[in-house]
Amino acid sequence: MTPLPPGSTIGILGGGQLGRMLALAAARLGFDVAILEPEENSPAARVAAHAIVGAYDDARALTALAEISDVITFEFENVPALAVERLIALGAHVAPNARALAVAQDRVEEKTFLNSAGVPTVAFAKADTPDEAAEALHVIGAPALMKTRRDGYDGKGQKWVEHASTAQAVFAALGGKPVIVEAPADFVRELSVIAARGAGGEIAVYPLSENHHEAGVLRRTVAPAEVPQETADQAERIAAQILTSLDYVGVIGIELFEHADGRLLVNEIAPRVHNTGHWTQDGCEVDQFEQHIRAVAGWPLGPTHATSRVEMVNLLGEEALAWAHLAGEPDARLHLYGKRDAKPGRKMGHVNRRRPLASSGHSHRSE
Ligand code: AMP
Fold first, then answer.
1. Pocket test for ligand 1, best of 220, 267, 268, 276 (most atoms within 8 A of CB)
2. How many CB atoms lie within 10 A of CB 174?
3. Per-block average pLDDT, block size 10, for the chain (367 residues)?
């Protein structure tokens, strides 16, 4: 791909905080951004050159986006597959590709893909009916985690099945939709790796993040995570296998379970910039947002080594009201998303607190 010159327009499906931070990074490189999002006045639209308000499957809105954009990307993975197909049919260049999106939208497809690419996950079984749910529990054993195949996020759409005898009831409680049944991961820590693949196939991997969730929502990330070199190498191999097998272009977030013996399993992949990569804004020379824009625009990827250790804390709901206090903390960098309505639990912003780098923050690069 010939690199897109500054002045080109990057289309983004989705107008949330990830779209906003992508738009800000794109602007810094001289690009214009067009946001397509169903809601008026979205966080991303308010910092973008063009805002198209419409449903993701609205033909008129998709045509307008395709006409204005030199490349189109997305900020969340539940964009309808049909929307991407339409954009491609209109001659648009979409990155990451439709396959990456399809794989990430369905937990069974995702784990099947990962295993076929040689990437380990927990054991799993699929179930479309109550009887299949009972059968899956016999295969996987109890306890097991039942999750809807599609549309789950932030711990929603999943429940533990403590006894095989309750499999059918849990299936019904999840809405009677197709599910995946997963063996419990016996992890000591949740880690993630943010990586990118450029249009020419080059790969750049950021140091690992250590993540802490509360009630299914990311609360805190510390990065670079303190891990043995072997763990960092393992994560780098996993990222490269996934990116190459998908012929991926852009940034990807890969959530990992770390076992006591150091073995990593992949929990899930997000074909986009990721909340556990927000630390890169203040811990790296080129953050995940700029990296994604560079990749989809066909530019060279930037360096990924850490220049600081960062503790990232999400500001949920009214926590963002402490902005004046946070802005007064010398080591804290405040990032607010411009959301008007501080509903409880809603991600309103985050704060990155810089710490001295414990050891050399490794950068992993391979061709
Ligand atoms: P997910 O929606 O798949 O990202 O899962 C949300 C959270 O549930 C993860 O961050 C883990 O803390 C936990 N979790 C997910 N899958 C498993 C599993 N198979 N075993 C144990 N815990 C899990």
1. 267
2. 18
3. 95 98 98 97 98 96 98 94 93 96 96 98 98 97 96 83 96 96 97 98 98 94 97 98 98 97 96 98 98 98 98 97 96 96 94 84 44
Distance 267 CA to ligand 1 centre (A): 7
Q: Positive or negative, the Cα torsion across 23, 29, 31, 32? A: positive
- Cα(237)–Cα(120) distance, integer angstroms: 12
Query: Is 116 within the bounds of a domain?
Result: no
155 CB within 6 A, ligand 1 = yes
pLDDT per position as a tens digit, 42-63: 999 999 999 999 999 999 999 9
Q: pLDDT tens, 136-180? A: 999 999 999 999 999 877 678 999 999 999 999 999 999 999 999
Asked whether residue 209 falls in the same domain as residue 342, the answer is yes
216 and 346, same domain (yes or no): yes
What pTM was estimated for this model as a whole? 0.95
The CATH number linked to 37 is 3.40.50.20
The position carrying tokens 């602007």 is 27
352 and 333 Cβ atoms separated by less than 8 Å = yes
Tell me, using a 6 A CB cutoff, whether residue 190 lines ligand 1: yes
Instruction: Tell me the longest C-alpha to C-alpha distance in the chain.
Output: 60
Please give the Cα distance from 34 to 12 (Å, whole number). 6
**CA distances (Å), origin 87, targets 95, 131, 247:** 11, 39, 19
What total number of domains does the chain contain?
A: 3
Domain region containing 84: 9-94
Residue 84 CA to residue 81 CA, distance in Å, equals: 5
Is the CB of 258 inside a 6 Å radius of any atom of ligand 1?
no
| Ligand 1 atom, smallest distance to 183 CA | 19
Question: Does residue 3 lie within any of the structural domains?
Answer: no
- Indicate if ligand 1 lies below 6 Å from the C-beta of 143: no
Please tell me if the CB atom of residue 122 comes closer than 6 angstroms to any atom of ligand 1: yes
